[in-house]
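2 proteins. here.
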Amino acid sequence: MWRERAGLRQAELGTAIGYSEEQVSSVERGRRAPKKQFLEAADAVLDAGGMISGLMKDVEVARYPKKVRDLAKLEAEAVEICAYDNSVVNGLLQTPEYLRAVFGSRCPAFSEDDLEQRVAARLARQAIIDGTQTTPAFSFVHDEAALRRHVGGRMVLRRQLERLLDIGHMRNVEIQVLPLDREDNAGLGGPFHLLRLKEGTTVGYNEVQRVSRLISESREVQILELRYGVIRSQALPPRESLAFIEKVLGET
């Protein structure tokens, strides 16, 4: 350990970098994830040559909730990602202001640290959509209600709709809208994801009332695949959907 090699006690290191002995102990025992300032200060005091400060990326990933890390790993292995959402805009498409408003509306409320971790984790997941790659392929279907709900207020929603229009023109992304005036809606059971992985298998994922579930049983996955196909057929085609989003933007 770098501290022991330097001949410093926890209290001495804490004094040198501006943290308490308890904070140093919590970091060393894995009870608390260190912040960037902690790692940079410890690296300098212990003359670690960047070995400690370089751990920041790993620390950031470790701070994310486990279910988020698991989902991000699956998304990284996917060749196609499909999602249906009927309440809010899909997380992979959310602007920072919009997703912060989504997490901020949870009841009971997240702690400030938990909120920041979830915001950072979702933004990190969004890196998979960068507009320069052809894989994975993305298919998103949103219920019209998700596009009209003023999450975060009018201006936050406007910027969110503008982002949907930008992403909707990417080569590997299709965004569809299921209008409220449709008599048939196979998605009334709630939102879900389908991820087709590189090795050929498909898994489902959903999260309801803060309870997330990975679906791998073949029969259940087949049901979700069938349901998603029906939802897509009920929704507007991609080009008409973008025109619909432009219409909603003009009315917002």
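next one coming up
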Amino acid sequence: MGFSATRDAVYSSGHPAPGTGLKEPFGLIKSKDAGQNWQHLGLTGESDFHVLATSYRTNAIYVFTEHLNSRMRQPGMYFTRDDGKTWQRSAADGLRGAVTALAVHPADAAIVAAGTKTGLYLSRDHGARFEPIITNALVASVFFALQGQELWYGSFDGRPALTRMNLKSGEKAVVKLPPMEQDAVAYIAQNPAQPAEWAIATFKKDVYVSRDRGGFWRQIARGGGTL
């Protein structure tokens, strides 16, 4: 399933729990009350978007799909700026490797980053063209800082890494990770109310929180269970 939050809502895609009687897959759904109620935006019974990202302030939505549906006649990357009423396909020229993660700039919906099995790619024209940022590692997670000045990404090339990149200068800084054995950063998030507070989750379902932009990580979950 896919899941992404904006300032106004959360968006998701996936499958209903057994026994609910809901049609599956969900297609694209939206909640404006922290998941208490969900609005179906389309493609119900057609698509489950595992790779889905939103722009925090603009509510633009990007998805990557390998399967066709009634609104997406070719596999690839698509975006919508009207909650799924209309979709536009991105050419994605220059993008190499299977897409593993997407992130959209919080204020400029034209800027999108894609992590793939071969590296990290950045587009500034709604995904029409991508430029390579790194090409020597699998990039499993990407996240634009909500202030709009940095791109954070988690990668793996034999060992896990977390990096933040200044979007204007391109300068990169390594963020020290807690010890991980055969694991990597699967998800990255930032607290909108406290910008110095970041969270990461790993593929082994370990979760860490830092209150100083990654200077020190405190573990709050191990293997999916809280500590």
